[in-house]
Amino acid sequence: MSDPRLTPDPALVTTRRAAQIGVPVADLCRRPHGPRDRQVLFGETVTVLNEASGWAYVQAEKDGYCGHVSQSSLTVPRVATHRVSVPATHVYANADLKTPDLLSLSYGAPVTVTTQTKDFAETAQGHIPRVHLAPIDQIEDDPAKIADLFLGTPYLWGGNSRWGIDCSGLVQAAMLSCGIPCPGDSDQQEATVGKPVSGDYQRNDLLFWKGHVALVVDAETMIHASAHKMAVSYEPIKDAIKRIEAGGDGQVTAHRRPELP
């Protein structure tokens, strides 16, 4: 049986065109007006498969996730040249930090830079500080370092941005930044990211529980987005294992090691 998260519903597919997310973050919903499954960021590309009553049925390019977004969140696609490389940034009206901020963008958001000055990069949306951007093809080499950028971010079920993120959203952001293909949900990640290992924990290993995932920082510590702290936080691995089992969510179901570039 196909996974509806990754396989478009044939009954809904009436068209196929490329589009981009034109708002800071858009909810990817299970159905129109339905619950949020995941989110897509400004500048990310989607394939529009159906449009009706103000909603678009789309498939995200970054991970193949299918769902419904508001039609008003879509815009004409542009070729991205850079991505936001800090937790969040502002887009200013002019190349001057004292001018009005027009838009806020989260880590990883792709942007199209048209010109650059000493301190700012100009886009169709406005001006972004150059120090907040990296070339779109720049690959990072340490997922745990990327996860640390989200430290303190509020927990949000299905969240994928600096404004709110969940456990699998945090892992996906970290992995994709390092050139490691990574689906959106923790069960998908447990099935596909890295290889099963046992024994000592190493930096950037992944630990899975039923419905949860954490990223190992060192032999004794992990970072994760959890409802326990309602934020991205560090936690001793041994403490987390005991706490999660005591709370009724069982033991670790998998220990996997991603292959870094």
UniProtKB/TrEMBL annotation:
Q: Which GO terms describe its biological process?
A: proteolysis
Q: Where is the NlpC/P60 domain?
A: 136-259
What molecular function terms (GO) are annotated for this protein?
A: cysteine-type peptidase activity
Q: Which UniProt keywords apply?
A: Hydrolase, Protease, Thiol protease
Tell me the InterPro entries matching this sequence: NLP_P60_dom, Papain-like_cys_pep_sf, PG_Endopeptidase_C40, SH3_16
Region forming the signal peptide: none
| Domain of life from the UniProt record | Bacteria
Please give the family membership noted in the entry.
Belongs to the peptidase C40 family.
The protein's name in its UniProt record:
NlpC/P60 family protein
